[in-house]
Amino acid sequence: MFRLDGQVAIVTGASTGIGRMVAGGLAEAGCALVMAARRPAPLEAAAAEVRALGGRVTALACDVRDPDHAPRLVARAREEFGRLDGVVLNAGAMAIGPAEQEDLDAFRDVLEVNLVAPMALAREAVAAMDGGGWVITMSSILGRRAGTGAGVAAYTASKGAVEQLTRELARQWAPRGVRVNAIAPGFFPTALNAPLVADPARLQALIARTPLGRAGEPRDVTGLAVFLASPAAGFVTGHVLACDGGMEVW
Predict the structure, then answer these.
(1) pLDDT, tens digit, for every residue of 75-96?
(2) How many angstroms separate the CA atoms of 96 and 240, rounded?
(3) 184 CB contacts (<8 Å, ≥6 apart)?
(4) How many angstroms separate the CA atoms of 88 and 18, rounded?
(5) DSSP β-bridge partners for residue 106
(6) Terminal CA-to-CA distance of the chain, rounded, Å?
(7) Residue 178's beta-bridge partner residues?
(8) Domain spanning 8-241 has what CATH number?
(9) Mean pLDDT throughout 51-69?
């Protein structure tokens, strides 16, 4: 029930961090992948790593800010593999600073990357899913909790919106046989959040807020993504599943 043999999926933000972790997990479970990210060199390196695991992978460098990224990715999936079953909407951006000094252009950019672009690709992907499929959006512990430190107003706003979008898409697309769920990670060491934990004291504070007492590891999020993409989750839709070591219980 947890195998993905014969399935094809798109993963955005797949060159590093959680996107790279999820891509590896899906490939190991038998899913063919279109891996997408903005920077070609890191993307090709990540795709080579997944191929080394035995995965069938094609890589397409694109910026999710570009209006044509969604049709390009869906077309690549169908050209290379003949079908599309799922999409992981992982590409993300963050702006750090006090809200009273927020650069509104930067605020809009975070919303464009974290909310508008996932909607654009989800819409395009679902139209290409013949006979049903699945969508995984990427939220965060900061989609349900306020941030700490300097401030991440745009990021928290975008992730809260992603969670509500997940519920609404699940409602609308259930008759099409498409399941839509979100993953809300806690602290995983990634390039995106590196500026937030550059201070060792802040890193330790994050670990201290995690009941399991450690940062997230690749297996923690890959197992959850494989579950949501697999037949084992065939009756699961409209949910936001926390992957945070218990951080949400505080």
Answers:
(1) 999 999 999 999 999 999 988 8
(2) 25
(3) 139, 140, 141, 143, 144, 159, 163, 240, 241, 242, 243, 244, 248
(4) 11
(5) none
(6) 33
(7) 133
(8) 3.40.50.720
(9) 95
Q: Could you confirm whether 167 is annotated as catalytic?
A: no
Contact 181, 235 (CB under 8 A): no
CA-based nearest residue to 187, from 136, 141, 139 = 141
Phi, psi of 210 (to 5 degrees): -105, 110
Q: How far, in Å, are 22, 134, 188, 227, 228 from residue 235 at the CA level?
A: 21, 11, 28, 11, 10
**Strand ranges in the chain using DSSP code E only, listed in sequence order:** 8-11, 32-37, 57-61, 86-89, 133-138, 178-185, 240-243
Residue among 134, 155, 173, 188 flagged as catalytic: 155
* pLDDT(25) > 70: yes
Which residue, chain included where needed, has tokens 């923690």?
220
For residue 198, name the pLDDT band (cuts at 50, 70, 90). Answer: low
Mean pLDDT score of the chain = 93
Q: Distance (Å, rounded) from C-alpha 41 to C-alpha 124?
A: 26
Supply 17's token pair: 């961090």
Residue 236 predicted with pLDDT over 70: yes
- Measured CA to CA, the distance from residue 166 to residue 139 in angstroms comes to 9
Two tokens, residue 103: 């650069």
Pick the closest to residue 39 from 9, 19, 68 (CA basis).
19
What does DSSP say about strands 240-243 and 86-89: parallel, antiparallel, or unpaired? unpaired
* Whether pLDDT at 238 is above 80: yes
